[in-house]
């Protein structure tokens, strides 16, 4: 019998090519689109449902829409807002992958008797001696393993990433050569559920209490200005602080309890270590010591570091060289070479 594969589809190039490749490989393919947000957005709106339907029709495969709005709000949106209220800078795409794309959607794929759930993510999975390993994609510019670092063995056993060995250029060319009905919309680093430049408005609409004036201080404790809410700042931010000091200064600390923002020059933004909470290891075990690198934010190349276990849920990262603006709420992801070992949240 043909193996049956579900493909998480947004109507974009990557997921569409992933589905087409599995059709070519002889799978019985089903397109699944999660409707996650009722307002205008990227990658989870009704517009994307329509785009995905067109691709599935062209490929001659079934297409289902599943309503994930409540789960998305509970697992992704609410923690995102709470993080900003607490003075953190959340990384909601990681939670979305853990709980929605490879949680909720994977469960729906299983209910449709699918052997595997595939997506257009740029990452690779290898099985060795019954253990699944998550590896960086061949295309370093598109590698998305940082956002997949909280996946489990159970999830990886039923996931496929058909584009893991491909470059983005190759994917685009393949799509054009095969005349897939994809409407280009460009690449974006913005969150799918918040309009570009509207983060503060979005958070205020769901947590109005965060909109209150507070002090902006220098690193000596001197007041420099007044701010309109801590949710308007992220650690490491340089512009938009409303302060001109004659030197480049960055947001060093966001104190939700005192409602204060502290600025500092770059040399005082460098940190040699950080505490990481809610630890998750893909193998299920704390990694053995060895040559490791830790990536403290998306787009960072990763830096050599050692990790020290504090408890089953906490560990400390000590970098060989101090790193700029280690940011509470962001993920610290641990790698051994190209393999993702796991990580947690910088506290």
Tell me what you see in this structure.
The protein has helices spanning 13-24, 46-59, 69-85, 92-111, 153-156, 168-177, 199-206, and strands at 4-8, 28-35, 62-67, 116-118, 124-128, 131-135, 159-160, 214-217, 223-227, 249-255, 260-265, 270-281, 292-295, 303-309, 315-324, 331-336, 339-346. With 347 residues, it is of the alpha/beta class. The protein has 3 domains: 4-177, Rossmann fold (3-Layer(aba) Sandwich), CATH 3.40.50; 212-268, Adenine nucleotide alpha hydrolases-like domains (SH3 type barrels, Roll); 270-346, Translation factors (Elongation Factor Tu (Ef-tu), domain 3), CATH 2.40.30. The strands form 3 sheets. A 6-stranded antiparallel beta barrel has the order 12-15-14-13-16-17. The protein has a 5-stranded parallel beta sheet with strand order 3-2-1-4-7, with helices on both faces. It has a 4-stranded mixed beta sheet with strand order 9-8-11-10, with no helix packed on it. Strand 5 (124-128) and strand 6 form a beta hairpin. It is globular and about 70 Å long. The model has no long low-confidence stretch (mean pLDDT 93).
